[in-house]
Design the sequence.
């Protein structure tokens, strides 16, 4: 393993290109394979035990979606790649979960990598890599673990809702990517609510000691979302401009719609990024104002007691011949002068609106 800037990368240095090595931490994840094979008139949904059971769908006239959960099962992924003539470098990228969103174009298929974002039980954003391989009549998807945002897509296939059962595999890839991008809006909405809550808290003055750390955590979440979204714009743009036969002209309009959504999400991310910096500045300003209030009170108290201390210091000196010492009312006069000074300074500070 190599360690760069505090992060552990499981890929070994000097490894042979095309070596299929899982780099995640879910070594105990069970293998789960599901297939949806459909035409306009019918569909077949199966849960498979091994990838060999999916080989029959390769050369059919129907459209097939094979979804594999469990990137730690590299042998099964290798068998699937061998049957579908997938390049070893593609298989290597599938199981290397630190990939940046990207697209690779091959003669018979497209390879797309993107990040699926969701909140876990601890209210933290999880970024899970999802890989797609688009063929002439199939889409292969690879996920690290169970749980995704594709339930609506499954229902559309089962119930023949929308166009998915009447279109080709390029449209199936579109609806899968669109499901992930649509979920970005939910993430953005939650981030926006968090920023508004922080603003309300800071303006109210009820700031706890942990708020600076909370703001930093929110900043990291925004950066994580930004890293997932910004490269995806180029991916979708390249799919839209693909000149091969895999992406039909009538489908490119739908990918253009995804691109528009990504632009909208990206703009929101940039706005939230600026807002989070403003939150930190606002918090530091609040702390500074509180400190200034404390310093103002201390300065006023010091200003009041400095002349009183001066008078007390004069008459506290050990000289035998001080004129006022023998005067009968000196003690009371001294107290009177000090009280007048005290009240006078309070009135002066009040008029200056320092109190």
Sequence:
């Amino acid at each position: 393993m190599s360690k760069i800037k505090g992060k552990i990368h499981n890929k070994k240095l000097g490894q042979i290109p095309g070596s299929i090595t899982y780099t995640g931490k879910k070594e105990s994840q069970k293998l789960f394979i599901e297939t949806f094979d459909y035409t306009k008139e019918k569909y077949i949904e199966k849960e498979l035990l091994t990838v060999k059971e999916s080989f029959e769908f390769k050369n059919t006239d129907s459209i097939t979606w094979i979804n594999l959960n469990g990137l730690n099962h590299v042998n099964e992924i290798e068998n699937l790649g061998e049957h579908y003539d997938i390049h070893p470098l593609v298989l290597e990228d599938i199981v290397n979960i630190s990939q940046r969103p990207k697209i690779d174009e091959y003669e018979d298929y497209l390879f797309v990598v993107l990040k699926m974002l969701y909140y876990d039980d601890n209210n933290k954003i999880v970024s899970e890599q999802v890989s797609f391989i688009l063929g002439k009549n199939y889409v292969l998807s690879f996920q690290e673990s169970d749980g995704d945002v594709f339930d609506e897509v499954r229902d559309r296939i089962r119930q023949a809702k929308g166009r998915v059962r009447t279109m080709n595999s390029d449209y199936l890839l579109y609806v899968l990517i669109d499901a992930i991008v649509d979920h970005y809006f939910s993430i953005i909405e939650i981030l926006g609510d968090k920023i508004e809550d922080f603003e309300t808290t800071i303006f109210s003055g009820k700031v706890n000691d942990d708020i600076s750390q909370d703001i930093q955590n929110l900043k990291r979440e925004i950066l994580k979302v930004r890293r997932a979204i910004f490269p995806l714009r180029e991916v979708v743009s390249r799919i839209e401009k693909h000149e091969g036969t895999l992406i039909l002209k009538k489908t490119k309009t739908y990918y253009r719609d995804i691109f528009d959504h990504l632009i909208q999400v990206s703009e929101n991310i940039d706005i939230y990024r600026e807002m989070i910096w403003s939150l930190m500045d606002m918090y530091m300003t609040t702390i500074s104002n509180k400190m200034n209030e404390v310093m103002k009170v201390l300065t006023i108290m010091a200003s009041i007691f400095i002349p009183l201390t001066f008078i007390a210091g004069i008459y506290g000196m050990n000289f035998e011949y001080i004129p006022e010492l023998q005067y009968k009312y000196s003690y009371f006069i001294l107290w009177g002068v000090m009280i007048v000074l005290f009240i006078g300074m309070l009135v002066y500070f009040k008029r200056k609106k320092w109190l």
